Every structure is written in C-alpha cells, then in structure tokens.
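Take one protein record:
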Amino acid sequence: MEDLATVVVPRTGTVSPAGSPQSGARVYGTVNETAEQLVTVTADRGSILLQGWFYLGLAGLVGALTGWGIAEPGFIDSASHSWGNFLMLPSIITLMCIGFGVAESAVERSVKKALLRGILAFPLGILLGFLFDMMANIIFGMLLRVAFELGAQTFKNPAIWICRGLAWMVFGAAGGVVYGIVGQSAKKGKYGVLGGALGAGLGGIVFDPIAMGTHVGGVSRAVGFALFGLATGVGMGLVESALKDRWLYVVSGPLAGKQFILYKTQTTIGSRQDSDIYLFKDPTILPDHAMISLNGNRVSLQANGPVSWAGQSVNTRVLQDGDLLQLGRYAFRYKEKQRA
C-alpha cells in the first residue's frame, strides 16, 4: 500500500466536462471495441418482410380486405338492418386482430406459435370487434351532432372526415389490445394500442374522400377499409419500434434484419417453436439454448448452449449496449436506448 501511494501517473490529456476528450487527449475506446476487433461477422442483408411496420401493415391490409369480402355480399347501401351492414366492421376488426396476433410468429417461421396465437386471437377478435364497433358508433354519433351544430351538412365537409377518424381510433385500439395479449406483454399492448389508434384514425379520415373519388359503393369500401387496415398495422409497427428501449438486432442468419424487442422479464432463445426467439435451420441450437433476463436496468444472459461474445465462449454475461453475441449461424447485436 505504501509503494502504491508513491506512484504518480503522468497526465497525457484531460477530458472536457461534457465527457469528450479535449484536443491532444488519447482515446483508447472501450473494452467491447477492443475485444470485438478479434471477431469478424459478415452482416447479412435484412429483408423488408422482417420489419414490424411491414408485416403488421400487411396483416391489417389482408384482414380488412377479408372481412370486407365476407360482409360485402350482404351489404346494402342506405339500409341499416342487413346482415352485411351489421357484420361489416366487426368482421374486419376480428380478422385484423387475428392477423396482428399471428403476423410476427409467421415471419419468424414458427408455425406452432402462430397457430396458438391465432386460436387465442379469434375469440378475442370477435368479442372486441362487436364491443368496439358499438363504442365507435356511439362516439361517431356524438361527434356528428357536434359537427352538424357547427355547420357541417354533408360528408364532403372535412369536419365529418375528422369525426370518423376519431371514432375509428377505437378500432385500432382493439387490434393493439389483442397484439399485447397474444404477445403476453402489457407494454407491447400499450404500444400496439397507441400505434393502432393513430393508424386507424388516419385511415378513418381518408375513408370518405376515397368513397367520393370512386363513386362505387363496393369499390370505395374495399379501398377505404384496405387503407384503414394497412395504416393501423403500419402505425403499430412504427410506434413499437420508436418507443422500444431494449432489443436484440439480428446481424446475420436467416432472420437478419429482424429486431426482437425485450418486453418480458425472461426471454427464451432456442430451437423450440414456442421459444420467444425461435432459431431454425441450425442443428447446433439447443431447444433451450439461452435465456435473457431483465432485472431493473440489468439485462443478463444465461447460456445453456454455446454462445460467443467477442470470440470467447460465455455462460453468463451482463449485457451492455453494443454487445455482439453469436449462437451458431446467428449473430445478435444487443442494443438499448440511452438514458439521461
């Protein structure tokens, strides 16, 4: 201790109060950067099919068009008691909810998980479809009365378009609720509700202008509801991506370009189709290969199979922003949003 007390370290540079080196100061980088210089990972080009906004938007589009196709044969303009008029919006919402529930599992090639989520989303979609349709009609009626009192007389008035958009935000919220339930995450559901409501509101605003532009009832409904479903799904994907705080980005492998947002306190990784992160086409991946645990601000990895960090085999590790992990043919970059 006495010898250490006499050691004087020469100052080769100072650091500015903001945390960045001043002119002439030496920068040595981080431990992660130094270690990763020994590892070369070829980043694969990611597919747009694996982007959340794309597959959720496609799911909303297909679900809305399918629901329209079911109810359109029984839809009668200027009639309120036809079965098609009664089932149009509930059918669309139900099938959009099913689409949102299975979309992520489908692009991850997990057929088993997609089927299980679809079975769960079906009754939820029916229940929420009719419930939220009733709620939206009540809201739309109240907003219409306000708009008419303010001078709006026809559906050519933009005030009516805004009324429909505000009312249809309820439908987007229904999709977000199902998205969170099948994903077993309240945070995922919250992001889904917010994004779905914003997207559905936009779809509702453009519905009447589309109807006026096409002048054909069936065609206008098909186009309007298709854009409504597309906007709802895209909104959900964009909001979820914008608000994420911790995630794994697939650098290489069959899922390159996909990001897995870490919502759950324990996220399983393995070759089982019901794993939270299902890794396929790799015989070296075990059924329960690894687990990522969240404990406050601490994110840790527990490996049951071979996992490499910076070229070194690890069994446990507290993850830091930028960590590169390799599991067989897959490489993941752990990322987290910087906090103040």
User: Anything to note?
Assistant: Helices lie at 2-5, 31-36, 52-71, 83-107, 111-149, 158-182, 186-214, 217-243. The longest helix spans residues 111-149. Residues 244 and 253 are 23 Å apart (CA to CA). DSSP finds eight helices and eleven strands in the chain.
